[in-house]
Amino acid sequence: MKAPLPQSASTHATPNLWRWLLMAGVLIILDQVTKLYFDGALRYGQRITVLPFFDFTLLYNPGAAFSFLAQEDGWQRWFFTILGLLASVFIVTMMHKSRSNKRLMLALTLILGGALGNVIDRIAYGHVVDFLLFYWKDWYYPAFNIADTGITLGAILLILDELLRLRGQHARST
Q1: Domain count within the chain
Q2: H or E element, residue 149
Q3: I want to staple 55 with a disulfide (CB 3.0 to 4.6 A). Which of 32, 33, 47, 170 is the partner?
Q4: Are 145 and 116 in contact (CB under 8 A)?
C-alpha cells in the first residue's frame, strides 16, 4: 500500500480558488441574463408594479452608484470601466491569499462578480442596465441590478468579516 502523496497548496483542503471564481462567473451570468431580459421586455422608463413598494423598471445609469457622475460627458464610462477592472485584479489577488477564510472569500466573490457584471455593461452599452426599484410613497431608492446586489452583499460580508476578526483578536489579547 502506497503512502498518500502530500497535498499541494492548490489541492489543499481549503476552498479552491477556481470554485470561488466559478461562483463569481455564475453571478455575472445571472446578472447579464436578467439585464438582457428586462432590456428587451420593457421600454426605457417603463415600470411594472410587483408589490406596493417594489417595481421592475428599465433605467440606464452612465455613472456609478446613486448615479454618481451620470451627467458627465462620457469620460466616466471608461473611468469606471478601468476602476472596475483594476478592482477585479486586486480582488482576485486577495482571494488567492485568503482561500482559508470562507466568509471573506464569499464577500470577495460577490464583489468581483458584481463589479465585472457592471464592467460588461459599460463596455457593451456605455451605461449600466438597472431594473429593480424599491420605494415608499414619494421616496425612491435608486434603481439597481443583480450586480449591484452582489457588490452590496459582498461589502456587508466584508465589514462583518473584519468586525469578527477584530473581535477575535481582542478576545485573544485579553
Answers
A1: 1
A2: helix 146-173
A3: 47
A4: no
User: Is 79 within the bounds of a domain?
Assistant: yes
Is 1 within the bounds of a domain? no
Q: CA angle 135-127-26, nearest 5°?
A: 80
Which residue reads 452612465 in cell numbers? 62
Domain that holds residue 149: 15-168
Per the DSSP assignment, residues forming a β-bridge with 56 are 48, 132
Indicate whether 53 belongs to any domain.
yes
Would you name the residues annotated as active-site residues?
130, 148
With beta carbons less than 8 A apart as the criterion, state whether 79 and 122 touch.
Answer: no
What's the whole-model pTM score? Answer: 0.84
| 8-state DSSP, 125 | H
Distance, CA of 171 to CA of 174 (rounded, Å): 5
pLDDT digits (tens, 9 = 90+) for 54-88: 999 999 997 666 565 555 566 777 888 999 999 99
